[in-house]
Amino acid sequence: MSQMIRIAIDAMGGDYAPVEVVKGAVDALKEHNNVKIILVGDSTEIDRELSQHEYNKKQIEVVHTTQVISCNEAPVEAIRKKKDSSLIVALKMVKEGKADAVISAGSTGAVLVGGQVITGKIRGIKRAPLATVIPTMKGVSLLIDCGANVDARPEHLLQFAQMGSIYMEHVIGVKNPKVSLVNIGAEEAKGNALVKEVYPMLKELDTIHFTGNIEPRDVFEGETNVVLCEAFVGNVILKLAEGLSSTLIHAIKDGMMSSTRGKIGGLLVKPALKDTLKMFDASEYGGAPLLGLNGLVVKMHGNSKAKEVRIAVGQCITFMEQGINEKIREQLGRR
Amino acid sequence: MSQMIRIAIDAMGGDYAPVEVVKGAVDALKEHNNVKIILVGDSTEIDRELSQHEYNKKQIEVVHTTQVISCNEAPVEAIRKKKDSSLIVALKMVKEGKADAVISAGSTGAVLVGGQVITGKIRGIKRAPLATVIPTMKGVSLLIDCGANVDARPEHLLQFAQMGSIYMEHVIGVKNPKVSLVNIGAEEAKGNALVKEVYPMLKELDTIHFTGNIEPRDVFEGETNVVLCEAFVGNVILKLAEGLSSTLIHAIKDGMMSSTRGKIGGLLVKPALKDTLKMFDASEYGGAPLLGLNGLVVKMHGNSKAKEVRIAVGQCITFMEQGINEKIREQLGRR
Predict the structure, then answer these.
(1) Given a cut of 60, is residue A2 above it in pLDDT?
(2) CB-CB: which of B74, B237, B244 is closest to A220?
């Protein structure tokens, strides 16, 4: 592919911005020569960071902005007021056709709202879901919607299922991905009004490989590829898993440190423990894409470092090269 | 308290029935002399188990039934058809004033539906929520509703909050328990339609100590005492936590066993690991009570053994001695 892919990066978003963001962008250039990265943010700070690195000047552009949206601001208000913030300017570049994708580790709320409102949805897409790759015992699954659209209706979930399948197949590389609906029971008749209504609709959808319900206890077993749910439940799954893993691991470490015997044992098991925990690290797959937009918006974790930024750039490139939006348009779009 | 508390136990429910159920009942008698236990089920099987033990014959009665509801049956149909099942007969004893409480480790669906339909709710209680004690870093919290009423409305959650507070204070023993609403953000304006509507109503309720939203990642930190949510979300929290803990622990064990160094270390850390995992064992607090009923119905885990049955008997006794239903009636009942 000879065409340059243009990625706007919110250089001011995240706990380690702009240092790690700029470093990640430069690192990405070493792996990809078909990309142009537009660093959006305070140009003085960005230039200072850039001066620390060697890179192909033609592949980086800096767009100066004067404002930053913080995580504590109400998203809708921040978007309306901070027109010259790094995030908003980056999102507008996609809307205006000056960039193909946006990456941001900034305020989740502002990225979600801004993505839907500024960048805009593909014609025919009713809601843009946030998807994220989660680690399982058998690799990874895609959790969709993990936080963008609360109170979703059945017709939204149908689209999420299809967009999730396309992403899982063509970006993550799982052929004919299995789609399962999160429910509090395995049988079709279980659950709340939403899942009861959407289940038969999913069964009739011939564009996906629907395998029925998945119970929350089985999500991390990895038997399915696309874990489908509405955003409130999806966010509960994502955040509870993060919180509980860290709680458990701390408790285990504390437990080991409470006796000499445990301390010695702890030192011995450390490498094995580290390998195990690495298994549950999904950061290799980039950030969380907001699907169904004109262009692509990738939300990264606030604590992302250069490595994660570099991987997210690769994720955007794969997304573009695989023509994900063309596939979504073909299957779900409206003229 | 001199009055005998009468507890009907579904002797046929659960993976280890009737052996462990009968043993647990007999064990409970060693701790309590103000209880009469009615074992409901196949009298031949129950009598055979009873003959293995020494106990005060006046404290045990056997009620013979001929049917059992299995976990694979549709609850509503099973309840209609299996009138002579151990569960239904036990529930009817509470309705008819022949018992004060029911304990069952059988089909969750049948216990939930049967509890609401057969035993009946306290006048003024709109829905009976399932509550369960969950282990946290700082002790235990009460998760309510963890599975009984999907598609609950705000007025139901208000009652759940109050009943959960009463249970936590008078059965578990936490003075003036803090109540938090599960939400996907800490601020009042976050969340779906249900939580947005119920938040200000909770703030105005002077019978509880409402402390605002709790994010799923913090549930197991133990900063709050009553974790309030509707049943779909509550069941996702409960089942995901069970599944993820077991997945993580298996992965860690497998990781240790994959090298000689890890194996030796694993042996050394075993006692510490065991203590840590025990910290996350909430079975000391009995089964999950269905609150707001005339009487009390306690759902035990299907894999409960004698110890859990014994503890559940104690839980029912405390519930009765503390007059929980009188307190609920006083605060929420209607004449």
Answers:
(1) no
(2) B244
Closest CA to B65 of B105, B14, B112, B18: B18
Helical H runs in B205-230?
A: none
User: pLDDT confidence of B335, banded at 50, 70, 90?
Assistant: low
Per-residue DSSP letter, B4: P
**Are B271 and A261 an interchain contact pair (Cβ–Cβ within 8 Å)?**
yes
Distance from A177 to chain B by nearest Cα, in Å? 22
What's the pLDDT tens digit per position in B284-321?
A: 788 999 999 999 999 999 999 999 999 999 999 999 99
Task: Say if the Cβ atoms of B265 and A262 lie within 8 Å.
Answer: no
Residues of A with Cβ-Cβ distance to B249 under 8 angstroms: 248
- Enter the ipTM: 0.92
All residues of chain B having their beta carbon less than 8 Å from the beta carbon of residue A249 are 248
- State the Cα–Cα distance between residues B65 and B75, nearest whole angstrom: 18
Backbone angles phi, psi at B97, to 5 degrees: 75, 15
CA–CA distance, A255 with B137 (Å, rounded to integer): 12
Q: Is A216 on the interface with B (CB under 8 A)?
A: yes
